[in-house]
Amino acid sequence: MNITEINIDGFGKWQNKTFPINPQLQVFYGENEAGKTTIQKFVSSVLFGFATAKHPAEQYLPKTGAGYGGSLTFTVDDAQQTQYRLRRTSGKNGGDIQLTNLTTNQVMPPELLDQLLGPVDRTLNDATFNFDLSGLQLLTTVTQPELMANVQRVGAVGSTSWIELAEQFDKDADDLYRPRGQKPALNQQLTAYHDLQAQLKAAEASYPDFVKRQHDILSGKQRVAQLGDHIKELTSKRDELARIKQLWPVFEKYRDMSDGLPDVNEKLITAEDYADFLKLQTQREQLMQTSVRQVAQLKEQTAETPHDVQFYIDHQSAFKSQATLFDQIETAIHERQYSRQQVAEQSDERDQIVAKHRFNAPWPTPLNDSEYEQVSRLTRAGQQRATNGSKTREQWLMMGVGLVLLLLGLIMSSGVKWLFVLLGVAGLAGGWFNVLDWFRAQQAHGTVPTKESSISELTQQHHMAGFPVDTWLVLQPDIQRLNQLTNQIDSLKSKIQQLNADINHFFEGYQFAETQLPLTNLSAADALLKARQYTSAKELAVATVQGQSQQRLQLIRENSDLQSKLSEVTTSLQQVMQRYHVQTPNDFENLYQQQLQLADQTAERRALGNQLTPEWLAKLTSYQDLSAVDQRQAEVTADLQSDIEQRDQVQEDIANQQALFARQSEDDTMPMLRQRLANMETQLVETAQQWLVDRLSAQWIDGALNAASADRLPAIVERAQTYFATLTLAHYTKIEFINEALTVTTSQGTVFDVTELSRGTAEQLYIALRLGFASVMADRTAMPLIIDDAFVDFDRHRKQAMFNLMKELAQQVQVIYFTADAGALTTFDDNQITEL
């Protein structure tokens, strides 16, 4: 089977995705979480069924609500190279499937899929053809029977049912007998048989002991009876001594008690006076305790006023005076900030004007209205002089020409003489008239004699040096704006200076509270906020303290009332004590207790007399003191303990003898034991025969399947041996199963158990076994080899050897390789690589 296309409708992260597959070697490359394992699980799920809800992690349900499932397109290696499309979608029992023969364009029955897969099910596929790094790390559990079972599943037609039958025979045989078992029937029968043999042997040797044991039991019981009587006597004596020891203090008190009574006041305290005394004393103590609590509360409330709150109270008027200016100072801070912003903006505009015209300090000042008009006339006069200057030159030229013509007319003597004279006189008259008119006009405007002096004064006065007069009027708007900006900036700076003074003056008002309210390193806004918060918090604290002051005043009033009551109770108490000539409550109490003691002693003497009967008095007087009682008690106790231990030991011996005697009495006779042994032998033979039948049946089936598989296990091991040598660069040359355990041999002949190999080498061994299995069994089933990044523990040389081996195997079995190793891509052709 060669997969040629994967189409995913919805599976895990993939939706509506199609991947063309190289029929020989296909490499999927992608970083972590690119979806490589999802594609691998999709191929297995479409071939063998979707995971159920019992294994939600294996379902890969799409998160976006897309349809669950997809299809695989594959070609089978038959005579027609038939192409199929297997489509599996969400449904019961692993999903609904549709199998289509694309060669004939026919929908095929779903049962055909089992025929196409042959003996390969999900378990065999995961164990052989589909593996990743975690699967390789299970190599230490591979045994020869497991590998042979996989060979049998593929090598013999219908072998699955026979293998299941053989496994059942093996299970039945194990249920009958296991070498180290305890519960199997044959194991239990063997144990019972051995026990019967031991019983029979013991019965034959133990009869003389039976009679002797019976005699020992009887003697032991007599000894126990004797010890029991003695223990009773000692127990009675021990109890008597314990009673004497218990009565000894009473006996001493009775013996030492005098007949006289203690001296007391002749007048006895009546019960009524003592009751009044107790009542008044209790009231007095309660009132005194209440008074103490109230005084303590007053002290606590006085002490509870924190230092910072007391500081605020002491300076509350100053803080409140500052608080009235909060809004004003906040407005001043905002105005200062706005004024600073205006200064910055206007300074920028002024700098731009200065830079534009390259003004130098001192900057030009604007002309007033009369100066502006004067410069305007000067400018117009200059323009007019330029125009009149050309006309004046023409008039002087006309006068020159007229003079020349006049002189020529006077000199000439011909008839045109007068014509020249007339033309000359006319030219002189016209030119002189125009020149005279120009002088009159200059004198009328008054500019001729004062021009130079006026310009010089204006240039110096308005700092216009370096600027032509004809540009002055053009510059006036910028000069006026410059002057306006300068005045505004100066005004704003004066305002800011005043605001700074007001703000600083406000914060100077907090200098007295610098330790409680430090504002030095804060901005004005932050300092004002802190001052507001401090004032609010302390006002609240002051209100709390004032409330406590009201409570303290109430406590003072209550304590005053209480002191009055205490004085009344004390007076009444003193009146009671004076009737019995005592001054203090302790004296009164002592007097009353002496009276009670007298009554108690009288009652006690009477009670002692009731306890100490003449019999007990006789016993008590037989001992000199309590130490003699203790000594006798210790002797009796030691004797008693010794007898008890002897009795217990004898009883234990009797119990042991009786147990042995009972066992001998209950044991069957020797003929009965021999009969039971014979019966057990018969059961053993029957069970052993059944175990042999089950075991031989399993071995016969296994041998038959081995023969049907054409003894392929050696071929698989030999092929795996070749692959393993390739992967390890000929360091290991042999693979063997020794006592069903997997071992390898180096080129120098050193043998290693698989558990002794490094992780990378162990993984290479398992890959060699899988590849050997796939290549040898390819004639029975050619499933694609699907490898999910299983070479991360390989060094670069062995990894390259693995890639070369994959290319070699791809000529025989399709290989689909998933990897996150970008360096591996250089080994494969572009048409073999799909980047996710």
TrEMBL record:
Residues 1-206 form the YhaN AAA domain. Keywords: Membrane, Transmembrane, Transmembrane helix. The chain crosses the membrane at residues 395-412, 418-436. Pfam families: AAA_27 (PF13514). InterPro entries: P-loop_NTPase, YhaN_AAA. This is AAA family ATPase.
